[in-house]
Amino acid sequence: MPVRNIILTLAACAGLAACGDTLGEQAAGGAAIGAGTAVITGNSALQGAAVGAAGNVAFCQLYPSRCN
User: Fold this and answer.
1) Phi, psi of 19 (to 5 degrees)
2) pLDDT tens for each residue of 22-55
3) If you average pLDDT over residues 6-22, what whole number do you get?
4) Fewer Cβ close by (within 10 Å): the C or N end of the chain?
5) Domain residues of the chain, as ranges?
6) Within 13 A of 45's CA, how many CA atoms are on the CB side?
7) What's the whole-model pTM score?
8) First-to-last CA distance in the chain?
């Protein structure tokens, strides 16, 4: 994966954090953002969704005060 794609993916995820109130909402929001970012950068939407969901849930669980 080119460095440009990694930077674009990280920027999109950081700018579009979608925490949600429940674990399911957190996973769904992260999956949507991850899939969209993957498609834009020319990568697998399924892999992007998995990474986005896991990343968003992890972030929201670690930093609930930043996830309102």
Assistant:
1) -70, -50
2) 899 889 988 988 888 888 888 899 999 999 999 9
3) 66
4) C
5) 3-66
6) 5
7) 0.71
8) 32
Quickly list H helices, the chain.
3-15, 23-40, 45-62
Place of tokens 């999956």: 31
Residue 2 backbone dihedrals phi, psi, to 5 degrees: -65, 150
d(CA 16, CA 14): 6
Q: Which two tokens stand for residue 46?
A: 């399924």
Please name the amino acid found at residue 14. Answer: A
Q: Residue 22: which of 52, 62, 60, 65 has the closest Cα?
A: 60
CA 53-55-57 angle, to 5 degrees, is 65
Phi-psi region of 20 (alpha: psi -120 to 50; beta: other; left: phi over 0): left
